[in-house]
């Protein structure tokens, strides 16, 4: 499921279309975006839950903040609600400290891994015995995709979208990593061992889009 990429792509397309329409009509694209930008937060929260059902609490928090901001920017209520935002964030941070395991980590045995982290840190661990691929999306946060215990028979492709954040993909020794992608003021690195690889080693393609972000493929123990 490419929910994260879909939300980001749709946001860029809609914003670009609004500005194009504004060039040929009287539409004030900047004002429209200023009024409705919290919809993006709501969409990201929904997308995160659609990708990873264990992210319920984080997704609800993101949707809640988006709705709170939306009623203000869209003029649904009079006055400003910004004074409520900081106390709300403090409450959320306190709840997150009390529930770190439920909010910050998940384990899956699905054959396709899907990992999503928005405005936070998250670890997703795969225990699949027949991993065939997957995707990872991180926006303004940190994401660890742990494939150390996963089993790959021949090869797979993992697509990574990282924006204003960092993503680490942990792999076991013996996997041949092929790392490539598009750097937008970002980058990536492969620090896995190359010795011991053979013609039958699983070949893992990691395709990255890194915008003001970093992606690293490494072993769980960084230096073996």
Explain this structure to me?
With 224 residues, this protein is α/β, with parallel strands linked by helices. It is built from 6 helices and 11 strands. The protein has helices at residues 3-24, 29-36, 38-51, 56-73, 82-98, 100-104; strands at 105-108, 112-118, 121-126, 133-139, 142-146, 155-163, 166-170, 176-184, 187-190, 203-211, 214-218. The longest helix has 22 residues, at 3-24. The two termini are 33 Å apart. 30% of the residues are buried.
Keywords:
6-stranded parallel beta sheet; 11 strands; globular; 6 helices; 5-stranded parallel beta sheet; 38% helix
Sum this structure up briefly.
This protein has 224 residues and is an alpha/beta fold. Helix content is 38%, strand content 31%. The protein has two domains: 3-98, no CATH class; 104-218, no CATH class.
From the N-terminal CA to the C-terminal CA, the straight-line distance is: 33 Å
Q: Can you count the beta strands?
A: 11
Order of helices and strands: HHHHHHEEEEEEEEEEE
- DSSP strand content: 25-35%
User: Which stretches of 5+ consecutive residues score pLDDT under 50?
Assistant: none
Strand order of the largest sheet: 1-3-5-7-11-9
Number of helical runs?
6
Average predicted confidence as pLDDT: 83
Radius of gyration using CA atoms only: 20 Å
What is the helical fraction, as a range of percent? Answer: 25-40%
Rough shape? Answer: globular
SS-based structural class? alpha/beta
The biggest sheet, with number of strands, parallel, antiparallel or mixed sense and barrel status, is: 6 strands, parallel
How many structural domains in the coordinates?
2
């Amino acid at each position: 499921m490419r929910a994260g990429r879909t939300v980001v792509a749709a946001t860029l397309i809609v914003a670009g279309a609004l500005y194009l329409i504004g060039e040929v009509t009287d539409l004030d694209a900047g004002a429209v975006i200023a009024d409705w930008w919290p919809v993006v937060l709501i969409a990201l929260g929904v997308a995160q839950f659609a990708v990873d059902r264990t992210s319920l609490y984080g997704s609800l928090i993101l949707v809640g903040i988006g709705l709170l901001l939306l009623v203000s920017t869209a003029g649904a209520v009079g006055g400003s609600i910004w004074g409520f935002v900081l106390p709300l964030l403090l409450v959320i941070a306190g709840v997150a400290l009390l529930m770190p395991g439920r909010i910050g980590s998940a384990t899956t045995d699905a054959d396709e891994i899907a990992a999503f982290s928005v405005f936070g840190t998250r670890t997703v661990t795969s225990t699949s015995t027949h991993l065939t691929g997957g995707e990872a999306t991180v926006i303004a946060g940190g994401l660890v995709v742990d494939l150390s215990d996963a089993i790959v028979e021949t090869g797979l492709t993992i697509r990574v979208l990282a924006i204003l954040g960092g993503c680490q993909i942990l792999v076991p020794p013996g996997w041949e990593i092929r790392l490539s992608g598009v750097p937008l003021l970002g980058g990536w690195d492969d620090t896995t061992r190359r010795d011991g690889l053979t013609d039958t080693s699983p070949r893992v393609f990691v395709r990255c889009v890194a915008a003001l972000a970093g992606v690293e493929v490494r072993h769980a123990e960084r230096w073996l």
